[in-house]
Amino acid sequence: MPDGASEAYPTPDPGLQLIAEGVTELVGFGAAVINIRRGDEFEIVAAYGDETGHTVDGDMTVAEMLGTRFPVSVVTDLLDMSEDWGDIKFVPHEKNTIGEAEGYWVPDTDEDILKDPQDWHQLDELLAPFYDENGELVGVLSIDRPTNGRRPGRRQQRILNRFARQARRAVLLTLQREYLEERANNLLEAQSFLREANSQLGLTGVLEATQEAMSRGLDADGLYVQAQDGEGGSVVYASPGLGWNATDSNNIAAGQAYQATRLWNDGQHAIVNRELLRHALHHGDAEQRKYARLGLEFLDAVEADSLLVVPIGVETTALGHLVLLRGSGRPRWTDAEGRLAMEFGRDFGRIVLTSNAYTQERDLAQRLATADKVHSRLIESVAQELHNPLTALTTGIDAMRHEDRGSTTWFQQVGNLISRSDQLVAMVDDLLLFSRFSDPSSRPALAHVDLTSLLQEIYEQRTYESEKRGIEMSIDVPSRSVYVLGDRSEIKAAILRLVDNALVYTHRGGHVRLYIVESASEAAISVTDNGVGIPAAEQMQVFTEFYRGTSQAIGGRKGVGLGLSIVDRVARRHDGRVTLRSEPGTGTRVSLVLPLANDATSLG
């Protein structure tokens, strides 16, 4: 390889070399070289001919010119001096003023004295400049020394123009190949980085760790990813500084997800730019105009000019999409880049599955650990709660054996035994309900439930208990029926626990109120009291299984700590919610909020 040759081209480019050979052999010239632009220089990537010439650095054959570089300004100056012969430009020696410029090669001949104006001079030059689709000068074909010693006539000019057009296509393909090879190498690097990323980071962690390598590998100014998280939801990630949040425009995110699924099923990618979107906005049908508006809104949000949408998936399953962005002034995405990125989408799909599998495994382990703790707390709580009433029952039964049947003391012992038995029944009922609601296969038995009659029924059932405790209880329900869709026994069990809690934590002389409030789509069954209240620090914990707060129960004992947890589970099983408002020393209001039933509500 001659001095100054590039290591990128130890041998000539085969396709371009063939064109250089064709110009010399078929058209009749002594030298032809093809140059490709490398920044501010041109590099000779193909050279053919048996001529020897000289530059400012010394003598050099045509073959030795391969790999040498010279400033772009040499070509642009020559073009400024040239005459237009179509794709070929002719520089007559009379205008050529750069004969000794750096990198300029002049054949060694004695043709400085011409016998005829059409004779070829050693400073005559033929050039074919090559421009890309953006109008940038990217290459040039240089031709010298016609074998007949004459300037080309019209027939030779037509042939040279055909060679020039062929050479331009070959140069652009070479540049695209080089670009794609670079992208492919970077892509392989990014894929390797992605594969080595620790899946235990979770999907978001993997994206944070690899987004820079992915952007570099895909030559993107930024990227946006939306992928399934394995639990029915999705993970959304955008490059730092991208200025895009999918939650700010769910329509755009939903549209992208729909298009990505279609693309994955079709094995395709999509290229979008502002020009295409504006055309669709003015000339498309209603659906096309809708997506064009969403697309322009997205491009504006991320300050991009074009984007490449690559579906993410594995086998027949679409898992999300990757959106690659390029800003204004950057080359637009090409189908060749899209095909490369599709492989990346498949590789990324495997990462999504692996990450989701790890996340599910981790969550399962956490749930198992939580279940184990709940199980331990359950055993401990049940053992503690059952120990005292069972001991009291045993003691009471033993004491009755020594009392006269029908005596005052005997009746007192019977009353205590009944109270302890009721306490045990209530605890067992809570445990059975909790067990039932913890079973994933358990579903509410849906029916239309009249809350008005149900609350009236509960009020009548608890009137005796409230009077016994010296607590006033009132009810305020609509005069008409209020229907929800649900399991009547579950809803009744939840309201009973709210009422019982209010009675247990309210002083004698206090007041408990039951009422219903309707909105357009919901009904709230509320129980309020003016009892001891719940400390603010405990209000977020009272719905946790087996949690028993510090508030003192009045005229009764605390339960096993499942009451409000059962209410919360009933609400969630009925697509509802529970709200709580409490002030220590002032009282508490708890509301079970459920969706109203309507004529279209299904019982299936």
Automatic annotation (TrEMBL):
Q: Which GO terms describe its molecular function?
A: ATP binding; phosphorelay response regulator activity; phosphorelay sensor kinase activity; protein kinase activator activity
Which InterPro entries does the protein's record reference? BphY/WalK/GraS-like, GAF-like_dom_sf, HATPase_C_sf, HATPase_dom, His_kinase_dom, HisK_dim/P_dom, HisK_dim/P_sf, Sig_transdc_His_kin-like_C
Is Ligase included in the keywords of this UniProt record? no
Q: Which CDD domains match?
A: HATPase, HisKA
Gene Ontology CC annotations of this record: plasma membrane
Localization, per the record, is: Cell membrane
Q: Which UniProt keywords apply?
A: ATP-binding, Kinase, Nucleotide-binding, Phosphoprotein, Transferase, Two-component regulatory system
EC number in record: 2.7.13.3
Which residues are listed as membrane-spanning?
none
- The reply to whether Calcium figures as a keyword in the UniProt entry is no
GO biological process, alphabetically ordered = osmosensory signaling via phosphorelay pathway
Offer one Pfam family short name for this entry.
HisKA
Where in this chain does the record put each Histidine kinase domain? 381-598
Leader peptide range in chain numbering: none
Source domain of life: Bacteria
Which reaction does this enzyme catalyse, per its entry?
A: ATP + protein L-histidine = ADP + protein N-phospho-L-histidine
- Name the Gene3D superfamilies for this protein: 1.10.287.130, 3.30.450.40, Histidine kinase-like ATPase, C-terminal domain
Name of protein: Sensor-like histidine kinase SenX3
